[in-house]
Amino acid sequence: MPTILMLLGWRFFFYANERNEPIHVHCRKGDAEAKYWLDVERFNVIEAHSYNMNPADKRTARKIVFEHFDYIVSEWNKFQEKKNE
């Protein structure tokens, strides 16, 4: 589970055992967590699921993903390349 970002108490990371899924990132802060799909073609972030997150948490996490969209995509690609070596 490599951590790619730590911002405002949120940890953004990937799971190594998720096969054949489109680009996405997980985030966790305390007991709150979520998974966001990244639609590169439309520059969009879609919430796949969330747990124990209030609306403010969701807005904050989604905003962070948008602000670091290109970085997350780049790290995803690097991560996938390393897994396939």
Task: Write up this protein.
With 85 residues, this protein is an alpha+beta fold. It has one domain (3-23, 33-83). 33% of the residues lie in helices and 36% in strands. It has two helices and five strands; from the N terminus they run E-E-E-E-E-H-H. It has helices at residues 55-67, 69-83, and strands at 3-7, 10-13, 24-29, 32-39, 44-51. Strands 1-2-3-4-5 form a five-stranded antiparallel beta sheet. The radius of gyration is 12 Å and the shape is globular.
Summarize the structure.
Helices cover 33% and strands 36% of the residues.
Order of helices and strands: EEEEEHH
Helix content: 25-40%
Q: What characterizes the major β-sheet?
A: 5 strands, antiparallel
State Rg.
Answer: 12 Å
Shape: globular
> Helical segment tally?
2
If strands are numbered along the chain, what order do they take across the biggest sheet?
1-2-3-4-5
Task: Provide mean pLDDT, rounded.
Answer: 92
Number of domains: 1
SS content category: alpha+beta
Low-confidence stretches: none
Q: Using DSSP, what is the number of strands?
A: 5
Core attributes:
single chain, 85 residues, alpha+beta, 5-stranded antiparallel beta sheet, 33% helix, 36% strand
Give the topology, please.
Elements lengths: L2 E5 L2 E4 L10 E6 L2 E8 L4 E8 L3 H13 L1 H15 L2
Antiparallel strand pairs: 1-2, 2-3, 3-4, 4-5
